[in-house]
Every structure is written in structure tokens, then in C-alpha cells.
């Protein structure tokens, strides 16, 4: 265990230690990791992001009056996201990631409910939503009503409607959900939300920066964004398919009035009025500047090129899986995120397949029902190798070494 260092260490030695420590980290550059990093396959974008991050390393977005450049960038990013997703250019903010965007949207719903006299609020979600909703409810002491999805793995709208009562402040659908990559029936949820006068959040942390391009490529995309009546808020992560580095997401609202609920204002201390629109106080500036730069650099044509790579890689991975006896993609994924597992009756031990892929240098995330893929542009360069290795791993058979299904801080631990 490290104790506090008595003396400083020369920079070269610190960097050498960093090298050693990083030696054990996942090698995402090789295209063998499927979540955590969205490899854009774009050296020029990467160089730009490094440069911008350097310039904003020490800035602080807490005080907008001192950093007009950051105010401008945040406004620009929110307005650009709003024009992509179909809402008011001022109705939202940046946040540090999907979890914070979700937290803020849930908090906004609670505060909206406060104004209507709801003392013990609840939110209703399908059971496939990201754990960030459970986390937000836990922190904010809101009841989380989880409703099992239907046989198609999408939100069961009737069952969700049946769970609504006078204390319901928010319904949630995903576009798409993380585990299976399917989009919930947002128009039907919108009608239920309107009929019951409640808010509806679409978690588009994954799809927000991909589905608009998917649609333009002519892929079938069920309605999911602000064009759908009844959708009142949305989370969409720029640090996923927006291809900036970590620390950037957008939370957007249909009605600019709702943003008011996101603000925390406080003047009962000697330091003057404190106003903050996110959970963080001091806000790192680099992710804001990075998000702004990535969007400006790529533009719609750049995002379309990347979406084409992702679509083609997704098709190639899915064709490889379909071509191997005993495996099947779970459900009918709508985008570039999906699970595959044993085909019914095949008897394939999918844990053993995951182990076999580990041994061949791949990093597939384990879920309860199978292995999970989140496809990035760079993956287009590794689809053939994947097909060969997967076929070999299945042919090798065997039984699972017992790595548990996991995500986040415990992923990769043994049973
Ligand atoms: C659908 C969905 N929502 C929310 C999140 C949370 O995002 P973050 O990890 O940036 O907090 C994720 C992360 O993968 C996600 O897939």
C-alpha cells in the first residue's frame, strides 16, 4: 500500500511508472474491446482532441463570467445537439456523462412534481434501462418501479401504464437499451405520458449521436426523438458515438421551462449567490471543449462516414454469428449494440465461448444471457479475425471458467 511520498519524483520517473501501470490496461486501440471506448478510427480527430484538451486542462467552467469561451462552447454544443434531436436550442445543458444526464433528468422530474404537490414521487421504467436510473432513484429517494419488458425485449407499454398512479412523475424508454440494443416503443409511451399528464424521458445515451445518421443511411429506425409527441426530456452522450473523450453528455428538454428545475441556486452563505446547473460544482473544461471540437471537426458528413463504418461492421459481426451453428443474436437489435448467446437447444456454453475469446485476445462483456458487443468504426478492420476466432472458440467447446456477468465497477470479477 502506498504511503504519502516524502519527496517528489522526477517527471520522467513518474511517466515511467505510468507506462508500467498502463501496461496492464485494456488495449482498446487494437479493436478488441467492445465498450468503454468508442474507437473512431480517426487519427486527425484524435490529434485535435489532444490539442484542445491541453488548452483547456486548467480552466474551470464553474464561473461563466470568467470563461466566455466555455459559455459559448456549451451553448453551441447544446444548440447543435438540439438541432440534431429536434428541440429548442436553449433547452438543455452539458453534463459529465450519461449517468449525470439521467440523474439531472430524474431530479428535474422530481422538482416538476414538487410544483404539483407530489410528495412521494415515483418513476416507471422497463427493467432493461441503464442502472443509472436505479442509482438516481436511490440517491434522490424516489421510488423506482421496474416493469418487465415484453417477449420482444421492448418496454411493455400496457404494463407500464398500469403501474402509473398520482405520484408518477416520469416514464422512461431507451433508444436503444444497453443490454439488447432495442428501441422501446416511444410513440406509445408518449401517448401514455400525455394521457396521464406525466413526463417522458428517452435515454438516448447510446443512440442520440448515432440514430440520426442511421436514419439518414436509410436503416429502419422506429420513432424515438423529440419528433414524438409526449417526449419531454432526453439524455444523449457525446463521449459515446459523438466520439469525444470521456466527460461529455447532453441532457435536453422539449420545454425550456423544464430546464429551470435543473438549476440549483443558493445564497444562504457568506460567499454570494451560488448557481449550478449540474451536480458538479467546479466543472472540468476540457470535456466541453473536446465535445465542441469533435462536432465541429466531424460535421454531419463525418458522422455519416463513421455511421457507415459502424453499420457495416455490425452487419459483418452479426453475419459471422449467424454463420456459426449454435449461436444466435438475442432479439432484433435496432442499432450497433447487441447481445449474442446460445441458439435455443444448442447446448453451447456461452461462458466458455467468452473464455475462448478472452484467450484469443478479445474482450467481450458478459451479460446474464450471453456476450455483448458495442460496435465502433475501427471494428470494421477486425471483423474477419473475429469470425475466425469465434468459430474456433465455439468449436473448442468446454465449460465456462465462471466469469460473472458484470458491468461497471465489478465487471470481470469471478462468480
Ligand atoms: C443506455 C445507456 N444509458 C446510460 C448510460 C450511462 O452512461 P455513462 O456510463 O456515461 O454514465 C449508458 C452507458 O453505457 C448506456 O448504455
CATH superfamily of the largest domain: Type I PLP-dependent aspartate aminotransferase-like (Major domain)
Bound molecules: pyridoxal-5'-phosphate
Rounded mean pLDDT score: 95
Which structural class do you get from the secondary structure elements? alpha/beta
CATH class of the largest domain: Alpha Beta
Indicate the CATH topology of the largest domain: Aspartate Aminotransferase, domain 2
The DSSP helix count reads 12
Choose one word for the global shape. Answer: globular
**What is the alpha-carbon Rg in Å?**
22 Å
Poorly predicted runs of 5 or more residues: none
How many domains is the backbone divided into?
Answer: 2
- The percent of residues in helical segments reads 25-40%
Question: Which architecture of the largest domain per CATH?
Answer: 3-Layer(aba) Sandwich
Tally the beta strands: 13
State the end-to-end distance: 26 Å
Biggest sheet details: 7 strands, mixed
Q: Strand order, main sheet: write it out.
A: 1-7-6-5-4-2-3
Strand content: 5-15%
What is the helix/strand order? HHHEHEHEHEHEHEEHEEHEEHEEH
